[in-house]
Write a sequence for this structure.
C-alpha cells in the first residue's frame, strides 16, 4: 500500500512562560491511501497540533510531514479540514458554503452547482440547501462542513473532533453517515476524537497518543469488517478492541503493551 | 467620549437559535404611543402651571407651522443635513479602508493607532476653535469637525471588527484554497460588516451631536444657528422646534442605518 501521509520524526515545541514545551516529540506515523485512522489520547497530548501540522496550519519545529511524498508547505485544497467548531461562513447559505472552495478553484458555474448539489444530497441537507447556518442544528452544521470539505475533492480529510459537540444519538447517526460517505467517496481520513467507542467504530487503525511529551503511544489495528453496523458495534470483537484502546488511553504506564 | 463599540455577536457555536419575539411587536408599539402622549400631557401641564416661560406644545406647534411656512425650517434642516451627510460620508469613506489597513497589517496598526487613540480622547468640539482659525468661518471647519467625529468612531470599530474575525474562519478559507486576497474579500469584509455598521451608527450620532454644537458657535444658517438666534431673542418656541427637529432627523437617520444593518447582517445569530 502507498503512504498518503507520513509524519517523519515530527516535533513541535511551544514557548510557554519562557520555557520550551514539547507538544509533539518525534512522531513517526504512516497513513496509507484510503485508510481511516482515528487518533485518541488525553487532552493536551498534541492531537490537534499533529492534525494542524498535516493541514499546513501549524509548522513543525522538527521533522516534517509528507503528503503524497511531498513535504507540506501551508494549507491547500488537496487536504480538507473539518474543524470542531464547524467554521461555516455564517453569511453564506449551505449551498454557497459548499461552493466556496469550488469558486476558488474556478470551477464553472454549472459544474459548481452540480457538484455542490451532489454533496449536499449526500449529507442529507437537500431541503436546507438555501438555509443560513444559523438556522441549522449542530449536526446539520457539521454535515454542511463535511459537504464543503468533500466538494473540493481532497485526497485527504483531516477531522478534529468533528462530533465533539453533538449529543450521543446524533453522534452515532453522524458516524454512520460519515462511514457511508467514506464508503462511496474514498478518501484518506485522519480523525481525532475523545471517544474510544467512536475511534474503534470508524477506524482501520486507532492511534493512541500520550502526553508530556506528545507522542504516539500505541497503534491498534481494528480488524472489523466494513460496512460497520450496529451488529458490529455490539459484537464481542468490538468490545475486545474497545477495551484494549481504553486501557491504552487511560492506563498509560511504561510497561503497557500486553493484550488480554 | 466613550465610543468603545460593544462588539456585535458574530457567532457562538452553541447559542440557541432564538425564536423571534412572538406577537410582542404590537403591544410594544402601543406602549410607545402611550409614552409619547403621556409626555406631551405632562409637558402641557408643566406649561400651564407656568414653569418660568416654558411654552406649551400648542405654542411650539404654531411656531413650527410658521417656520415651516416661510421655508426657514426646511432651509435650516437642509443646511444641517448637508453638513452632516458630507462630513459623515467623508469620515466613513476614509475610516473603513484605514480600519481594514490597521487590522490587516501590523505596521499600519503601529503607525496609525497612536493618533487614533490620541484624537479619540479629544472631543471633536474642542477642535472647533483651531479649525475656525485655520479654515475660516465657512463650511469647511464645520464639515471637518463632523468628518473627524465620524471618522474616529468608525475607524475604531472597523479595526476591532477585523482583528476579532474568528481565526478558524480564516483557516477554513485557507484550507479550501483561499489566498490572502480571497480571505480578505470573502471572509474579513463580510465578517467585520456588523462592526462597521455599528461604528457607522455611533459615528452618525457623534456627527449629528457635533454639527449642532458647531452651528451654535459659527454659522449663518442651520438648526443650531436658528436656536442660537432664538436664544438671543428669548424665543423659546423656536428653540423647541429646533430641538424636536434635530431629534426627529437624528432618529430617522439612525433608523435608516439600522434597517441597512438588519438587511446586511441578518445572517448573525442573535440571542
Ligand atoms: N499556540 C500554542 N502556544 C502554546 N502552547 C500551545 C499552542 N498550541 C498548543 N499548545 C500546547 O500544546 C499542547 C497540545 O495541544 P493540542 O491542542 O494539540 O492538544 P490536543 O491533544 O488537541 O488536546 P484536546 O484533546 O484538549 O483538544 C497543549 O498542552 C497546549 O497547551
Ligand atoms: Mg484538540
Amino acid at each position: 500500500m502507498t503512504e498518503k501521509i507520513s509524519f517523519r520524526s515530527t516535533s513541535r515545541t511551544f514557548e510557554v512562560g519562557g520555557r520550551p514545551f514539547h507538544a509533539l516529540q518525534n512522531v513517526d506515523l504512516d497513513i496509507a491511501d484510503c485508510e481511516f485512522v482515528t487518533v485518541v489520547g488525553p487532552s493536551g497530548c498534541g492531537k490537534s497540533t499533529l492534525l494542524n501540522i498535516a493541514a499546513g496550519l501549524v509548522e513543525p519545529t522538527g521533522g516534517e510531514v509528507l503528503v503524497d511524498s511531498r513535504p507540506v508547505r501551508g494549507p491547500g485544497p488537496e487536504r480538507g479540514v473539518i474543524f470542531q467548531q464547524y467554521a461555516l461562513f455564517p453569511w453564506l447559505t449551505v449551498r454557497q458554503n459548499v461552493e466556496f472552495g469550488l469558486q476558488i478553484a474556478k470551477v464553472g458555474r454549472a459544474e459548481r452547482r452540480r457538484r455542490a448539489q451532489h454533496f449536499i444530497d449526500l449529507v442529507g441537507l437537500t431541503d436546507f440547501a438555501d438555509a443560513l447556518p444559523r438556522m441549522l442544528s449542530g449536526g446539520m452544521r457539521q454535515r454542511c462542513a463535511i459537504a464543503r470539505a468533500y466538494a473540493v475533492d481532497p485526497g485527504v480529510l483531516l477531522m478534529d473532533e468533528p462530533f465533539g459537540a453533538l449529543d450521543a444519538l446524533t453522534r452515532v447517526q453522524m458516524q454512520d453517515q460519515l462511514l457511508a460517505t467514506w464508503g462511496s467517496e474514498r478518501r484518506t481520513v485522519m480523525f481525532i476524537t475523545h471517544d474510544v467507542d467512536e475511534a474503534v467504530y470508524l477506524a482501520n487503525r486507532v492511534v493512541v497518543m500520550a502526553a508530556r511529551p506528545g507522542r504516539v503511544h500505541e497503534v491498534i489495528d481494528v480488524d472489523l469488517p466494513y460496512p460497520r453496523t450496529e451488529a458490529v458495534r455490539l459484537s464481542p470483537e468490538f468490545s475486545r478492541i474497545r477495551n484494549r484502546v481504553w486501557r491504552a488511553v487511560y492506563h498509560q504506564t511504561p510497561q503497557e503493551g500486553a493484550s488480554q | 467620549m466613550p465610543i468603545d463599540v460593544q462588539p456585535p455577536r458574530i457567532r457562538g457555536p452553541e447559542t440557541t437559535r432564538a425564536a423571534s419575539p412572538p406577537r410582542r411587536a404590537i403591544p410594544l408599539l402601543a406602549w410607545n404611543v402611550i409614552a409619547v402622549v403621556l409626555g406631551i400631557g405632562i409637558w402641557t401641564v408643566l406649561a400651564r402651571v407656568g414653569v418660568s416661560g416654558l411654552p406649551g406644545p400648542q405654542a411650539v406647534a404654531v411656531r413650527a407651522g410658521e417656520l415651516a411656512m416661510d421655508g426657514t425650517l426646511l432651509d435650516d434642516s437642509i443646511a444641517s443635513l448637508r453638513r452632516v451627510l458630507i462630513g459623515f460620508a467623508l469620515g466613513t469613506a476614509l475610516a473603513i479602508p484605514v480600519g481594514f489597513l490597521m487590522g490587516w497589517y501590523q505596521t499600519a496598526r503601529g503607525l496609525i493607532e497612536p493618533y487614533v487613540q490620541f484624537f479619540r480622547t479629544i472631543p471633536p468640539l474642542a477642535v472647533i476653535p483651531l479649525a475656525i482659525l485655520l479654515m475660516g468661518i465657512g463650511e469647511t471647519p464645520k464639515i471637518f469637525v463632523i468628518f473627524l467625529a465620524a471618522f474616529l468612531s468608525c475607524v475604531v470599530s472597523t479595526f476591532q471588527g477585523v482583528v476579532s474575525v474568528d481565526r478558524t474562519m480564516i483557516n477554513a478559507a485557507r484550507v479550501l484554497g483561499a489566498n490572502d486576497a480571497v480571505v480578505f474579500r470573502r471572509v474579513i469584509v463580510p465578517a467585520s460588516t456588523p462592526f462597521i455598521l455599528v461604528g457607522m451608527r455611533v459615528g452618525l450620532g457623534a456627527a449629528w451631536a457635533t454639527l449642532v454644537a458647531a452651528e451654535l458657535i459659527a454659522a449663518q444658517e442651520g438648526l443650531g444657528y436658528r436656536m442660537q438666534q432664538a436664544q438671543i431673542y428669548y424665543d423659546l418656541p423656536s428653540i423647541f422646534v429646533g430641538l424636536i427637529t434635530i431629534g426627529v432627523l437624528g432618529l430617522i437617520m439612525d433608523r435608516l442605518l439600522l434597517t441597512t444593518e438588519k438587511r446586511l447582517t441578518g445572517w448573525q445569530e442573535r440571542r
The pocket of adenosine-5'-triphosphate (ligand 1) is lined by residues A 14, 16, 23, 43-49, 214 (CB under 6 Å).
